[in-house]
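Lay summary. Proteins are chains of building blocks that fold into shapes, and those shapes determine what they do. In this project we predict the shape from the chain. Here is one chain we studied, written as its sequence of building blocks.
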Amino acid sequence: MEELIEKLEELKNIILEEDVVKRYLVAKDAVLQDDLVKDKILEYEKTKDDKLKEEIYQIPSFLAYKECENELLLEIMKMNSLFKKIKSDI
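And here is the predicted shape, written in a compact code that computers can read:
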């Protein structure tokens, strides 16, 4: 069991070194540091105003974050597909 935990930790470290993950984390941090974005998101959560949503998506730091998030989700889908293939081969 300890060997499995070590291998999972090793896999986690490899994933954290991937460029797509690094870009995502930087973009996420930039959005979290931007008070304008945070305020607009909190306001949107309360009002669900579509005009406000459009404003949020026009903010460059938020747009960059969403692009990185999409890239990361695609990578996750690729990994899931690979894991399914590995599992079916066993």
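What the prediction tells us: The chain has a mean pLDDT of 92.
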